[in-house]
Specification:
2 copies of one chain form a homodimer. By secondary structure, chain A is α+β, with helices and mostly antiparallel strands. Chain A has a domain at about 1-165: 3-Layer(aba) Sandwich (NADH Oxidase). The first copy, chain A, has 12 helices and 5 strands. Chain A has helices at about 1-5, 20-30, 50-55, 65-70, 80-90, 100-120, 130-135, 135-145, 185-200, 200-210, 215-225, 225-240; strands at about 45-50, 70-80, 125-130, 150-160, 175-180. A 4-stranded antiparallel β-sheet of chain A has the order 1-2-4-3, with helices on both faces. In chain A, helix 2 (about 20-30) crosses helix 6 (about 100-120). Chain A starts with a helix and ends in a 5-residue tail after the last helix. The model of chain A has no long low-confidence stretch (mean pLDDT about 95). Strand 5 of chain A pairs parallel with strand 1 (about 45-50) of chain B, so a sheet runs across the interface.
Chain lengths: ~250, ~250
């Protein structure tokens, strides 16, 4: 396993080979063995294999080709609906419409997603997270007929790899790990930490194409621009409130 | 790996055996290979081994014994500080104080946490998530000297297992998995799904000790009571705002 984890790459292109149902279910069962808050299992997993459903989902993921190309799309949802219903038939109030419950459920949902990914990759499958899920969670919830208390959080495409890709750069380890206390960074240290990223040829090309001065501009002004983040934050907050996940 | 994932149990008691530094760092490096949003790596990991630091952390985790007992405590933090500083020296605004950035960073932080856990378990280590992190994130941030833009999200204790414990019950698979669309549950289905949980002897004992009528009451009135969740939600929201993670 450790080897498959060390060598992993995100895979966006898949062969025609289908994933055996038993294999998929086994991997999902393994994922559900992961830790979760108080064993409430505040998540649900929706399997999409049907081409018509994929067609409906594709625009919500900004038509990223892997939605149609992957044999399986998995949507991992925060789910307080099941827990609420259990409380209701036991005549007690669940009290789940708050940030604490949502954050716990979001952590649990992410844990189960990532555990699935690690297990799937070890079995030779390739995965890709679709970050678009947060942008259009409400529309995805409608397509998947999620009731109140359920909101999509993580989507992954999964299938047998049809591409060989290099590993992405990561920041140097000293940027991530702190010993006993967080040691903040000087400007010089930040420059050093981001040196390899800033000087990477494909990143430089990316800066040029986008007509920006540097990679930080591309990220902060185009890929994750403040106004877009604020727009989608508002959409997401409204979606959480409308679906009874936040008061 | 698949076997270690299938058989995993949360471990709260550890032997005196220390974790070799090189082993720990290798596992953390492997964890950082996991997927993350736009390769921004919006997380930091703080290693606690020092007994004095553990003593300070213990009350923030409601004195759960594994904080002192484990050779290593790892605090995985949402971190937009490093990214902000990179943007600043490149004279561009990061725009990270919104729900979208926070949720993305929280997902990334959880992914790296859980990837570490899976790798560590495969190497014979045992882990336990400390859900208390969200309750006292601000106090933990102070102890670990986190600057603005950094907030603890997941803490795990890790060490070599000194206990053998049984696997916890999980809900039946049909409660979690939905095919193509979410299929909502009737009262009868909810009863069936929770039957094994409700009838479990140790859960029944737990209900009796707590002087409640059923397990749903214990969860909704004691363990995750609405008023407590709302109190800690407010604390957490204030903490996110004070630390510049939400506007």
């Amino acid at each position: 396993m450790i080897e498959s984890m060390e060598k992993r790459r995100t895979i966006r292109s898949y062969t025609n080979k289908q994933i055996d149902d038993a294999v998929l279910l086994d991997l999902l069962k393994i994922a559900c063995r992961a830790s979760n808050t108080g064993n409430m299992q505040l998540y649900s997993i929706i399997i999409t294999k049907d081409a018509e459903q994929k067609k409906k989902l594709a625009p919500t993921h900004f038509n990223q080709p892997q939605v149609m190309n992957a044999p399986v799309i998995l949507t991992f949802c925060v789910d307080v609906n099941r827990y609420q219903k259990w409380c209701k038939i036991n005549k007690t109030e669940a009290g789940t419409d708050n940030l604490m419950f949502f954050t716990n459920a979001a952590i649990d949902t992410t844990i189960v997603t990532q555990t699935f990914c690690t297990a799937a990759e070890e079995q030779g499958l390739g995965i890709c997270y679709l970050g678009t899920t947060l942008y259009n969670s409400s529309q995805i919830a409608d397509i998947l007929e999620c009731p109140k208390g359920v909101i999509p959080l993580c989507t992954i495409s999964v299938g047998y790899p049809a591409e060989e890709v290099g590993q992405q750069l990561r920041l140097p380890f000293k940027a991530i790990i702190h010993d006993e206390k967080y040691t903040d960074f000087s400007d010089e240290q930040i420059k050093e930490i981001y040196k390899e990223t800033d000087e990477d040829e494909s990143n430089k090309e990316f800066v040029k194409i986008n007509n920006k001065k540097n990679l930080a501009e591309v990220f902060s002004q185009i890929r994750y621009a403040k106004k877009d983040s604020e727009f989608f934050s508002n959409e997401f907050l409204n979606s959480l409130k409308a679906r009874g996940l936040l008061f």
